[in-house]
Amino acid sequence: MIKLIGEQPTSACVVVVSGIIERAGGSLEEQMEQLRRAHSLAGSEFALSDAFFFYKKGLESIVDDQVTQRFSSEELASWNLLTRTNQNFHYISLRLTIIWGLGVVIRYGVLFPLRITLAVIGLTWLVIGTTLVGILPESRAKSWLSEVVHLTCYRICARGLSATIQYHNKENRPQKGGICVSNHTTPIDVVILANDGCYAMVGQVHGGLMGVIQRSMVRSCPHVWFERSEMKDRHAVTSRLRAHVAAKTKLPILIFPEGTCINNTSVMMFKKGSFEIGGTIHPVAIKYDPRFGDAFWNSSKHNMVSYLLRMMTSWAIVVNVWYLPAMTLQDGEDAVQFANRVKSAIAHQGGLLDLDWDGGLKRGKVKDSFKEEQQKMYSSIIVGHKIMTDRSASLILI
After folding, report:
1. What are φ and ψ of residue 363, in 5° steps?
2. What secondary structure does DSSP assign to 16-49, as a single string?
3. Do residues 245 and 178 lie in contact, with contact meaning Cβ atoms separated by under 8 Å?
4. Pick from 9, 82, 211, 223: CA 20 to 30 A from residue 238's CA?
5. What is the pLDDT of residues 124-163, one digit of tens each?
6. Where are the beta strands (DSSP E) in 51-188?
7. Residue 281 domain boundaries
8. Can you tell me the distance from the alpha carbon of 318 to that of 41, in angstroms, rounded to the nearest whole number?
9. Dihedrals phi, psi of 33, to nearest 5 degrees
10. 306 assigned to some structural domain
11. Is residue 228 part of a domain?
12. DSSP one-letter code for 327
């Protein structure tokens, strides 16, 4: 890997070392202030040496991009006898080769058929059970039966993944009428959380097998499914979710505010929409143990079928789940600040990196507004105040 060093901004050099890039901590303003203090420069003075600071930052991003690496599988300290199954064979020793070969036979010849059987049983029971419960009139008994059906199904499916789940701080479990938000690593996050309690799912209406499952589920439980046209109408989405939360007898809504799967090392920007609904937020941190199986779903590399095949041929899915204390919007706090506070709490509890980047960068480019925000921050350092009203000054770096 590469490390950038040099006390002086004009001596940003690169040397090959083990590990990752050593980055300076703090915001852009804090780093620039420290740099200027070291060179006895006033905040309102422009120095040519500032260009080297941005040159160093740009080189760091090229070598060790903080965003791109969050969408590739987590690196392991030691081999778990899995990765070589799908890659070119590399001979290490006869004994290790024999052990790996036996592992392939066990995982594909014994565990995989059993897991497929359990998954089919679980999904079949979900469709049949929720359809039968949906016939009953609305009552307390129907709600209870619906929860029993859902819990049974998800627990069978979890056995189909050989999931070993440890729940912490169960006294903080999400309550009815609230919103459960969590970091997102894989689609099976839903199965992991629903093993310990029922949730109202939120998502887009699908066709095919997924559509059959969705229609059967909504008959017995008030899940929130949106048509494609509705998903684009932010006001309509917010209104339906707010109405669900207002009904204190309905199951807590389960939302993954990152909007995409991250590789079990970090938590990226939470979309503010989930925090504008109102109500109580119940944060949950999920952390998978990669030694037994890579739970991360790289949707740009694997489709759902190949991903599930990888999951069902892993050794196991070992995961820890932490329920955090409920959080509400504080006085003077907007939705963005609230989202960041919840995200930081989840990252701290799960031992994950807390990143401000938008997970949408997985498939898109950095927005011009974000670039301009960085330009404005540098401009404010030069002119000596925080807010720039002159737009032309915000483009000083161009």
Report:
1. -125, -5
2. E-SS---PPPS-HHHHHHHHHHHTT--TT---TT
3. yes
4. 211
5. 888 888 888 888 888 888 888 888 888 999 999 899 888 8
6. 163-168, 179-182
7. 164-356
8. 53
9. -65, -40
10. yes
11. yes
12. B
